[in-house]
Design goal:
The modification N6-(pyridoxal phosphate)lysine is found at residue 274. Its EC number is 4.1.1.15. It holds the Pfam family Pyridoxal_deC. The protein has helices spanning 39-50, 70-78, 91-107, 124-145, 162-170, 218-232, 249-252, 320-357, 387-395, 426-444; strands at 118-121, 154-157, 174-177, 200-206, 238-241, 265-271, 283-287, 299-303, 306-310, 361-365, 373-378, 403-405, 414-419. It is an alpha/beta fold. The longest helix has 38 residues, at 320-357. Bound molecules: pyridoxal-5'-phosphate. Pyridoxal-5'-phosphate is lined by residues 63, 123-125, 128, 161, 163, 206, 208, 210, 241, 243-244, 271, 283. The site of pyridoxal-5'-phosphate has 15 residues, from helix 4.
């Protein structure tokens, strides 16, 4: 091979990245290249493409972790080769997963935290599927035992995240999505009675509604299900989708009863990679007690000469995220989680105050009492601009602030939402508020495109 083809200039010195052969034309779009390339050059060019993604710390749409410390990054890199499913080959990784499950069962007040079951997943979506499957299996067993029809299961919920729509479609369950009431941020207990029946496998309550960031009143939902059982005999379990709230409420709202303290709560899912502070790719599902996970759903894999029960949709899965989750538990402890989340809540509350003071907005969720976030609507539909216009303007400064209509909501209310999470400082929130003010001025003076007004000359 000629020297230049290996990315080396005459004399064996490496080519400059941007003078190397690979950088002489666009990277492959459709076909794998025939030749190898210098990893240094390939790395630089791929990384350069990714700069188009923007800065994740300005992505205020996501609940997911966008900041990690050096030690977390090291653990991720050092465990690149660990497969979560190889319990026999990597028994200590398996042990760490079990410790995380026990720690979460304890944090969420399982009456039998040391012995109950749970598992890591790729995120809350997989965890929700597993929680939903356990509900479906248990409902079917009850129906069969009673000699009743078990062909038309339904799941009752409010404005759930799309993973529950997937669960319903993939596993053939009718999703009974209760419409949002005017001004409500989620499902309300009094709405349950009209939707729950003998085919209801469970109710999903959300601790941190994706669209509004508020908590649904889980204790109220549980009490209503108790009352329904009292009046009708229907015993409907509650699953809590605590994707975000499961790692906020225990630290910042410890008095709030949303977890296994409520007997009605059969299972909980949470995203380790959201307010759990772990890197992307880890979620958790935990059952109140081991008997609530049907044996039929459990598969066994080899483990230290014996076997270990597993419940998962995937087989191979990276171990680094679970290991790093454990590192976060060890490093931060309850004190550290409380401090990190409380700082985010304080920042969200301050930002909510700023946003309320800007004039055109009505706060839907003011950043306190639930997730560290703010959600709001445009008060006057005749304002001359929409929230989508504001999202566009903010994007010119790199901010990603989403606008979207609320799900099943009669008048298609459009909301905007800002999430504050680990790594988003008070300073960053203040910069966002300044840019919002500037954008509002531009929008209300009609310079929507902004081209002429902000054109500049050399
Ligand atoms: C993010 C989210 C999910 C999905 O979680 P992933 O971890 O992204 O799979 C489910 N439910 C709620 C309420 C969420 O916020």
């Amino acid at each position: 091979m000629a020297p230049h083809e290996a990315g080396r200039a005459a004399g064996g010195r490496p080519d400059d990245v941007y003078a190397a052969p690979l950088s002489g034309e666009p990277l492959p779009r459709y076909r794998m290249p025939d030749r190898e390339a210098d990893p240094r050059v390939a790395y630089a060019l791929v990384r350069d493409e990714l700069s188009l993604d923007g800065d994740s710390s300005q992505n205020l749409a996501t609940f997911c972790t966008t900041w990690a410390d050096e030690e977390a990054r090291r653990l991720m890199a050092e465990n690149l080769d660990k497969n979560m499913i190889d319990k026999d080959e990597y028994p200590q990784t398996a042990e760490i997963e079990s410790r995380c499950v026990r720690i979460l069962a304890d944090l969420w007040h399982s009456p039998d935290a040391r012995n109950t079951v749970g598992c890591s997943t790729t995120g809350s979506s997989e965890a929700a599927m597993l929680g939903g499957l356990a509900l479906k299996w248990r409902w079917r067993e009850r129906r069969r035992a009673a000699g009743a029809d078990a062909s038309r299961p339904n799941l009752v919920c409010g404005p759930v995240q799309i993973c529950w729509e997937k669960f319903a479609r993939y596993f053939d369950v009718e999703l009974r999505r209760v419409p949002l009431e005017q001004g409500a941020t989620g499902l309300r207990p009094h709405q349950l009675r009209g939707h729950v029946d003998e085919n209801t496998i469970g109710v999903v309550g959300i601790l941190g509604v994706t669209y509004t960031c508020d908590y649904e009143p889980i204790a109220g939902l549980a009490a209503e299900l108790d009352a329904i059982q009292h009046d009708t005999g229907l015993d409907v379990p509650l699953h809590v989708d605590a994707a975000s709230g499961g790692f906020v409420a225990p630290f910042c709202q410890p008095g709030l009863e949303w977890d296994f303290r409520l007997e009605r709560v059969a299972s909980i899912n949470a995203s380790g990679h959201k307010y759990g502070l772990a890197p992307l790719g880890v979620g958790w599902a935990v059952w109140r007690t081991a008997d609530l996970l049907p044996e039929d759903l459990v598969f066994r894999v080899d483990y230290l000469g014996g076997d270990m029960p597993t419940f998962a949709l995937n087989f191979s899965r990276p171990g680094g995220e679970v290991i790093t989750q454990y590192y976060d538990f060890v490093r931060l402890g309850r004190e550290g989680y409380r401090k990190v989340q409380q700082r985010c809540l304080d920042t969200a509350e301050a930002l909510a105050g700023e946003i309320a003071g800007m004039g055109p907005f009505t706060l839907l969720y003011p950043g306190t009492g639930a997730l560290p976030a703010v959600s709001y609507t445009l008060t006057d539909p005749g304002a001359g601009f929409t929230l989508y216009d504001l999202s566009d303007r903010l994007r010119t400064r790199g901010w990603q602030v989403p606008s979207y209509p609320l799900p099943p909501d009669r008048d298609r209310t459009v909301v905007q939402r800002v999430l504050i999470r680990h790594g988003i400082s008070a300073d960053k929130a203040a910069l966002l508020a300044e840019d919002m003010r500037r954008s509002l001025e531009e929008l209300s003076s009609g310079a929507r495109g902004g081209g002429e007004r902000i054109g500049f000359h050399h």
